[in-house]
Input
Amino acid sequence: MTEFEGNQDVWRSASGRICVASPHVARDVLGNRQGAFKESSDFFHTRAGVFGPREAQVEIGRAARDLIRRHLDARRADLPRLVGTRLTPTSTWPDAGNLLIHEHLRDVLLRPDSPAELHSVVDDIIARAVLAGARERHAVLSRLRFRRRAMRLLIRNIQARRSAGHPAPRDLLDVAVIGAGSSADPSQVAEVYLSFLFATVGSIGFALGWSVHLAGTHPDTTGDEPAWVVREALRLWPVAWLFARTPCRTHELAAVTAGPDDEVDVCLYLVHRNPLHWERPNEFVPRRWAAPPREPAYMPFGFGPHACAGATLTMTLLEDLIRIITRDWQLSITPSGGGPQVGPALAPPRFTAELRHRAAAEPPPRGGE
Ligand code: HEM
Output
């Protein structure tokens, strides 16, 4: 983050990258209406370049959204039980949030009748690559060996599913296989599937962690609308906080000249705290969302053609969970030391949450009142 500690709108950092903290420039870069940047999407970025064509990207986003939404609608009533069993009496965060989301989405991430070794490798990917700080817990060589084994297994299953030729997706691996088409490079299809694991278990889990942490450390906001809490948590701590884009021609970004050899980094963390756009920008004020501002300085799900396909369903799920946690339970937070965990995603600090059922925690009403 030190790269981004300037207070200008657009500047060139010590390492030569162009950093953007202005909401308007951020929209120009991500919206790419002038075609000044190479088409790109962090979600579809793979080791062999950006997965494409665009029609396949759009179809994969649409099919994933439909499938997850159906799954969530069918299981919405299960959320109170999940909170009661997963998070009480105490839970260790941020992993608790990721694991709760994993349990809730398990069957849509990988359908139950998939081979046992595929289930086990998906569990291992989550433990070794998705959870906050997971990568640092394993030596580089062990990570490389695991990645090779996981990719081999995913590719084998992708090829098997292609040969079976099922017409409609039953889980997110099917979404990637069917949407990519039979000629797509299977290792790119595997990476698109990995993006789904990061977006669901990773990003939704971290956003839940931030919302719980902020709600628990600001008891004065108890009773505020869950939707405001989640929006404000994603403003202060946008899980997807940094977007890299490459110019395809030389042009001016504010007062900085950007060319094809440059990397332009849009820093949403700074955009979301821009004091020209937000009052008390560094404070947690869910009530500011009571009258939702038509705010150009808020884009936790990106902006423009590559904005998130799962934004609405993610917000609904987070709001449902925060409603249950703050309505039914009294929440108290104990920090475990350390600050936000900054990686490709912005994960919350480690903390313990204690949930006491409100019916048990609150004194019974006095007679006659
Ligand atoms: C808190 C949760 C999430 C956050 C913060 C998030 C954030 C984002 C952001 C910022 C982008 C734009 C990336 C760019 O412009 O380079 C994006 C794209 C995308 N997201 Fe999400 N996302 C989340 C959850 C999900 C979920 C649950 C899905 C499942 C459907 C999903 C599917 C996608 C897809 C398919 C794209 C690429 C869109 C395109 O390029 O057409 N995301 N997401």
Observations:
- The radius of gyration is 21 Å.
